[in-house]
Amino acid sequence: MPALASVLSRIDTDLDASLERLFALLRIPSISTDPAYRKNCREAAEWLVKDLESMGFSASVRDTKGHPMVVAHHDGATPDAPHVLFYGHYDVQPVDPLDLWQDDPFAPAVKNGAGRKIITGRGAADDKGQLMTFVEACRAWKAETGSLPVKVTILFEGEEESGSPSLKPFLEANADELKADFAMVCDTGMWDAETPAISTALRGLVGDEIKVKAANRDLHSGLYGGAAANPIHILARVLADIHDETGRVTIPGFYDGVEETPADVLATWEKLGRGADTFLSDIGLSIPAGEKGRSVLELTWARPTAEVNGISGGYEGEGFKTVIASEASAKVSFRLVHRQDPVKIRAAFREFVKARIPADCSVSFTEHGSSPAIHLPFDSPLLQKAKAALSDEWPNEAVMIAMGGSIPIVGDFQKMLGMDSLLVGFGLPDDRVHSPNEKYEMSSFHGGQRSWARILDAIAR
Amino acid sequence: MPALASVLSRIDTDLDASLERLFALLRIPSISTDPAYRKNCREAAEWLVKDLESMGFSASVRDTKGHPMVVAHHDGATPDAPHVLFYGHYDVQPVDPLDLWQDDPFAPAVKNGAGRKIITGRGAADDKGQLMTFVEACRAWKAETGSLPVKVTILFEGEEESGSPSLKPFLEANADELKADFAMVCDTGMWDAETPAISTALRGLVGDEIKVKAANRDLHSGLYGGAAANPIHILARVLADIHDETGRVTIPGFYDGVEETPADVLATWEKLGRGADTFLSDIGLSIPAGEKGRSVLELTWARPTAEVNGISGGYEGEGFKTVIASEASAKVSFRLVHRQDPVKIRAAFREFVKARIPADCSVSFTEHGSSPAIHLPFDSPLLQKAKAALSDEWPNEAVMIAMGGSIPIVGDFQKMLGMDSLLVGFGLPDDRVHSPNEKYEMSSFHGGQRSWARILDAIAR
């Protein structure tokens, strides 16, 4: 019997015991954002250290200014085995409003859902259930083969739900210890209950705020209207000019570094069946905005955007005031893909705006964050191995998807430790993460363990 | 000695006594907006009734739901003399911040300004000093000739500084009593201390609020950006489209009913020396906005405008939020001239907006007031007589100016009583009305009395 087969078999027979371990972790109310649960956060970290040590990891609770990190190391079966850093977080979201929960959020249980079993409780999906899929896969490997197919470093954070204030300093201070060949992050979802997914791209972000100033004070629109510059008009013109009639962004150089998505990837996305109808009807819309002739998945996963996130100027209260404002402002963000350069995008945008400001008016800018896109090349061996492993486990072939938003840790691993991240997770869209009655499918927990067992096997080859 | 000459002479010799009367009225703190001064408002009304009765007017205090009106009547010298309605207001603005006043605002005094005498105190210019110029002119006519050259009805209001809530109901209930051949309103200013002015036009106003709705909730711009409609983009496009590159309003039919200002009037305005430099430098600007190739005075006095008075949407607080708002709104107003029809303008604007809303989004509108422009024909005999009378009195010839804003009473007289209004006043731009240290020039008070004496004479002919 090949090693993998016995490992998978061990996972199956050990499922009830693995569930008991997850329950023990879920019972600890490690709410990171509420100081009242500070001790519980440490308790969760200590529980994890103890569990990892029981499997032969050298593990420790590492203090930070906030909640502690858990760091653990285990050698691979051979000295030249790949080295992976696995990331998860043991902290959970607050549980209010408590009266909307059907059960105590910290008394986990297995219940029968619509023809399937679910694990209920705060953190079941986000992220305790997910991180334990990896831990249990390691346990099974260790139990069956006495070792792990790859060298594993584990990093569990306790502040993911409260903005990760300690993460960057910790990565910086411990870069040598944490640096691996690549990272594996288990905090995302499947496409559906039968289709595993790998998130291969995260869009980057540039945020900027414009303030247009015209007259030195608010003016009476009767006395000055028609002769004095109106900053809202100027701002509206700037914002309207950002997109052309086909929905393309008109800022010079904006598309530099943007690649066309390969036809086979587009075809895969097409097959996912999440077209404009499904995507938009949920939010009360029916016509894709943005660049014409592209699917909604391509638009949100693989195309850059410019969005005005807020606008303000003049009289905004009840009723009416015939005022010409002295200034007006807008918050604008750009989602970036591929190799678009945040620094160049910001500079080009600001030039674009300045060119539209009359000579007697002025504009000022405030920077609001900047991060490049994260993009795992579709032909990367890591990706192909993980895809094959996942496809072996689940009814449907694994799909490579993207995320319109960002997961900061992935950018930090890239920037601070020079590592790509493999984003694999087993959550489902209806897991109610951050909401009352959070759950995790038993099939996610079980299949997740088996999936990681397969992935560890695949990447060791 | 012709009647007018002796009347003017009487005004000169009676100046000190007229000043005492004005002081008596200025001492009454008739602040209409503050309930604490309710009795003082009535006191001012009663003082005026008594003064008018002393000159032979049949005068009375007329109760309203708010502060009382003063209505007074006096026959003309002949039964076929014209009948004029004179309007002024006896209420004044609040005086805070009191510590910025050099003197007690209700202890009027004559002081020496820069080589000239000024009358200080709240209401000196707005409007007690101005309304008394007319009363004193009548007194002099009565004293010298035993009668008045025209039939005079006087209407003094006590709520002008607090929105005139009782005015329309009062005009409606007393239309027969108040209707005259035309109205004379003394609440405006001179062009400068040597140049009297008649305001011949007031722009009308249409106010409208647009609310664009897109998705059924606020969206995460990472997850939906690029595929979901952004109402701020739609609104910016609508607002940017309102003006073309030459500053003209592009709404179909917008310029229907707009007349070109006669060349000789434009030439007069040109001579006033208030070009773009002077007009704009005060407010920190230098380039006229709006329609190209027109002077700032023409732009603000004789051209219609579209102005966005307020805009709001998405995240407007500190920092940044990557949200796509579900709705965005703007307040837009149009200043109207000549025969532009407010009803048609509003309808055309709404069609213009609707044509720019994507089929899966919606727009709603809220009406915020509507009034047509007021326009006294340049060749009206009333205007020509008043202009000649004013030109006889002052060093410079009277100029016909316009006002970019509106004076509601003029529209009410037009609409409810079918009367044109002659707008003549003697305030100066530096009178600090509504501010601490309000003043009225002694030359305004004296020359104003003489001016009305001349105008009454002129229009009786």
UniProtKB/TrEMBL annotation, chains A, B:
Name-wise, this protein is: Dipeptidase
GO MF terms, alphabetically ordered: metal ion binding; peptidase activity
Instruction: Show the InterPro entries listed in the entry.
Output: Cyt/Met_Dipeptidase (IPR051458), Peptidase_M20 (IPR002933), Peptidase_M20_dimer (IPR011650)
UniProt cross-references to Pfam families, sorted A to Z: M20_dimer, Peptidase_M20
Q: Does the keyword Metal-binding apply?
A: yes
Q: Where is the Peptidase M20 dimerisation domain?
A: 201-359
Keyword annotations for this protein? Hydrolase, Metal-binding, Protease
Q: Which GO terms describe its biological process?
A: proteolysis
Organism lineage: Bacteria, Pseudomonadati, Pseudomonadota, Alphaproteobacteria, Hyphomicrobiales
